Amino acid sequence: MSKKSTAKRNEKIALQPAVAATVVATNPQAEMSYDDMLTELEAIVSEADIRLAEEEGSL
Q1: Distance of alpha carbon 23 from its chain centroid, rounded?
Q2: How many CA atoms lie within 13 A of 54 on its CB side?
Q3: Does the N terminus or the C terminus of the chain have fewer Cβ atoms within 10 A?
Q4: Using one digit for the tens of pLDDT, what is the confidence trace for 1-59?
Q5: How far apart are CA 35 and CA 27, in angstroms?
Q6: What pTM was estimated for this model as a whole?
């Protein structure tokens, strides 16, 4: 790789977190309460348990 293309790649990587932080900061309604986050996490774990049981059952 040339130095020029490497520099462009590094520049893109450096910009991505700034864009993400801007989106989060400008959308206060997207913030979740502790209970909302806990509920979402419980749903994710439950779905993962179901998926794992299905995978183990198919073996």
Answers
A1: 14
A2: 6
A3: C
A4: 555 555 555 555 555 555 555 555 555 566 889 999 999 999 999 999 999 999 999 87
A5: 19
A6: 0.46
Taking the domains of the chain in order of start, what are their residue ranges?
3-58
Residue tagged 């991505």 (tokens) = 16
**How many Å apart are CA 41 and CA 49, to the nearest integer?**
12
| End-to-end Cα separation, the chain, in angstroms | 44
CA 20 to CA 22: how far, in whole Å? 5
